[in-house]
């Protein structure tokens, strides 16, 4: 509990809103998606997941280890396909470097794929895992939203990390 409190204070001190974003891709995502008035779910991570699927029109999704969220996505977006490669979006509880490298080498991700990692501040180990992951050269865009984190491997994008309040 103490870790989450202190890490949240640090997050607030480092975070910004859309005014601190200089990447057109991320600025559009933050202003048109994350900051849209639509509230699709009370859980912030699930709300980000649903808004992201809607904003990008994502079709091929994988939701790891959460049948409740998978059912919610099926109900909200009936045309969504699950676990079909290559994936547009992968929603996971945690992501480490070996797992990322494995799915990358297997061709599960494409250039515009997104990985949404839930609860990146659950504990110190998961936060450190997140930091090591976003330091990889293949990860070009990372967005820390405290409740979850989004990573992308867009080759045309300059490597940048954003810490955004939602």
UniProtKB/TrEMBL annotation:
<protein>
    <recommendedName>
        <fullName>Class I SAM-dependent methyltransferase</fullName>
    </recommendedName>
</protein>
